[in-house]
Amino acid sequence: MHGNRPIFDSQEIPWFDQSRTLGPLGRAYKFHHTRRFEWLRSKIAALEKPKISVLELGCNDARSLGYIPVPVERYVGFDAGWRSGWKNGKAYGFEAARQRFRDVPRFEFRRSQHFRDLEQVHGAFDVAIVLETFEYLEPTKLEAYVTLLSRKLKSGGHIFSTMPNEQGLPLLLKAIGSKLSGVPRSEYTASQFWNALIGRMEKVPRSVHGRKGFDYLAMARLVGRYFSHIKLESVEPAKAPLWLGLNIGLVAYKDEARVPQPAW
Length: 264
Description:
Oligomer: single chain
CATH architecture: 3-Layer(aba) Sandwich
Largest sheet: 7 strands, mixed
Strand content: 15-25%
Order of helices and strands: HEEEEHEEHEHHHEE
Distance between the termini: 43 Å
Number of domains: 1
């Protein structure tokens, strides 16, 4: 056991669509889903810290904990719990995380649908994790979330986030995959889809809670108001140019001088 972090196989944690039959696309989907966690593992390992404290936004089943390569001395995970509950006597989603770690000291799981819930967390953290979550937050509240994440990180802390690329060739490939697999995606009109394909994201209305119209570059600019040393990279395929990335990784470093006071 690494400190307070239980050792477990991350594949043991049930996830909400585990029973979905995807046919030959199932293996590709699983690989794509796992890549964000492998990316996270490599980024945390590169910090070369002996142990870390973690604040995670959109933790779901806390699968990320299985990929953190160092002891976790404190963990607080937030999730709306939309995809959570019990099925055939087995917990899944957010409920699975709460059950699995209910006896682990200094591990907390908080159901949340409002940015002010982050204000209730005491102390500061080394790392903030936001995997495929910014796109599901209400667009008008994104800056409030980013502000609070910056305030809850220690000086020199890092935020690691992955975001979908919802434009260009990646969007087209995802749309084709959705049709072939039967996994639903956001609905577009023909003109909206065309504008997203050619990168005119300002002409694509944002979903209140979803990927449609989400612009990872706009999100990076917002994060850049509160963090320094912003870096974007393709998560999958790894090392591809950004315009070819199916999802995009963001790494940002906290500089205390860059954190303005909240405006709400």
